[in-house]
Amino acid sequence: MTSGSPAGPSERGAEIGRRIGVGLMYGLWKPRVLGAWRVPASGPVVFAVNHAHNVDGPMVMGVAPRPTHFLIKQEAFVGPLGTFLEGIGQVKVDRSGADRTAITRALDVLAAGGALGIFPEGTRGAGDFASLRAGLAYFAVRGGAPIVPVAVLGSTDRRGRLIKKLPPLRSRVDVVFGDPFEAGDGSGRRTRTALDAATVRIQERLTAHLADARRLTGR
């Protein structure tokens, strides 16, 4: 994973993206990072991130202890922004169907021992992990990667927001990393039944982590 070629997203690009993210996130908001020590220092890992604000992905990318390749909707890959996202190792995905190219690239990240970022709810919403898609279970089981739950909790106060989909500028944003866990049942099966069961287990763990994160941060 050493180039931005079709062979796989660029690890070096993702590290550059992390450095850019650090500057932007700490310049515009006040991130407070909790539990980063729980993230495995090496080997494949999947960050499962709740998604309530447009800043959630860049925030995790900037504060995570490892360079992260996020699955990002293809609609974001437009013009200079698209070139930039590809340059920093992010993975474009067509959400209208099974995007084989995106699946291959995401698995390449894990096969190379990298960190893959996923919004398991599929799109921005309440950010409460209430509706999970099976893709997270598939990547974790197929890629042999533990899942690290990540809760991004920003201000719910609408005052001070220049853009309604973003937390107020200079407000505190908490990013809470949870304990890694295995999605599968140990059998390695990837049947629909096995993945559905894994998705249920994942949802229970993510929901519990979000509740713990809210208690910890007072959000």
What's the structural domain tally?
A: 1
Secondary-structure element order, N to C: HEEHEHEHEHEEH
The fourth-level CATH homologous superfamily is Glycerol-3-phosphate (1)-acyltransferase
Strand content: 15-25%
Q: Tell me the span between the first and last alpha carbons.
A: 38 Å
Helix content: 25-40%
Give the strand order, joined by hyphens, for the main sheet. Answer: 1-7-6-2-5-3-4
* Low-confidence blocks of residues: 1-5, 124-128
Multimeric state: single chain
CATH domain fold name = Glycerol-3-phosphate (1)-acyltransferase
Cα-based radius of gyration, to the nearest Å: 16 Å
Structure in a nutshell:
The protein is an alpha/beta fold. 37% of the residues lie in helices and 16% in strands. It has six helices and seven strands, in the order H-E-E-H-E-H-E-H-E-H-E-E-H.
What's the arrangement of secondary structure elements?
Elements: H1 11-28, E1 30-34, E2 45-49, H2 56-63, E3 68-73, H3 79-87, E4 91-93, H4 100-111, E5 115-118, H5 135-142, E6 147-153, E7 172-177, H6 192-217
Parallel strand pairs: 1-7, 2-5, 2-6, 3-4, 3-5
Antiparallel strand pairs: 6-7
Helix pairs in contact: 1-2, 5-6
Polypeptide structure, described:
There is one protein chain. The protein is α/β, with parallel strands linked by helices and 219 residues long. The chain has one domain: Glycerol-3-phosphate (1)-acyltransferase, CATH 3.40.1130. The protein has helices at residues 11-28, 56-63, 79-87, 100-111, 135-142, 192-217, and strands at 30-34, 45-49, 68-73, 91-93, 115-118, 147-153, 172-177. It has a 7-stranded mixed β-sheet, with helices on both faces. Helix 3 (79-87) links the parallel strand 3 (68-73) and strand 4 (91-93). The longest helix has 26 residues, at 192-217.
